[in-house]
Amino acid sequence: MSTLTYCKSFASTNLLDSYNAAISERSSNVTPDSGGRKKRGVGEHTRFWTPGRTLKVLIFKYNEHSFEAVKNGAIKWSPYINLNFEFLEMDEEDIYNSEEFLGDIRVNFQPLLKNSGSSRIGTDALTGHPHDASMHLGTYFSSPGYEGMVTHEFGHALGLQHEHQHPDAGIPWDREKTYDYYARTGGLSRQEVDANVFPFDRIPGQTYTPYDRQSVMHYDVLDELTLGDRQLTASWSISEGDIAFIKKAYP
Ligand SMILES: [Zn+2]
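Above: the input record for the complex with zinc ion. Below: its predicted structure, written as tokens.
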């Protein structure tokens, strides 16, 4: 049983900042042309990084296990992307003494959710204040689910959305029970459940990769949260579908 049953991706609080960060990073973010699972509204931009670049991953110092744990989860993506990760570890004081983004992705160990991770989506990491983490992870490094959780959060950091929100997912959520469950277990608001759990609307004329229930970006689906009899145990590891999608995003 995986430790993680949910996570929270968090959007930039300012849509214009999000748009500007995405476009200055990669002009093709203006036109969602990478196919797939992240189409949420007409004109919405994607948030992918520039292929070929080095992504600086700044890890807030925690203990002797934290650096390796983050690195091991992140590099699961490396064989499939034309991006390099450069991992840096720093004390909070050094981070707070700088006014610049010392890391493109900034990881701390103060989870926003109980036993779970959170991340900004792709280039949204370059919005907001440079001192703020763009990814929040827990400290249960020895748990068997930890690495899969980190891989999932790095999927968000690379610009991926949740796969259980694919318009074709067809999960018969019992909406009220689902709101209640995530409020109780993770403290998610109804708005956050809408943003992280329920399906995205299909946008006419857009191309989608097929729904992939094996995706590392897919939650566990609990039977008690669905109508009828439906349960799904997430894999928390990178699937063939994830590989196809991420290769296309980072050629
Ligand atoms: Zn997630």
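Notes for the reader.
The first strand starts at residue 8 and ends at 10.
The mean pLDDT is 88.
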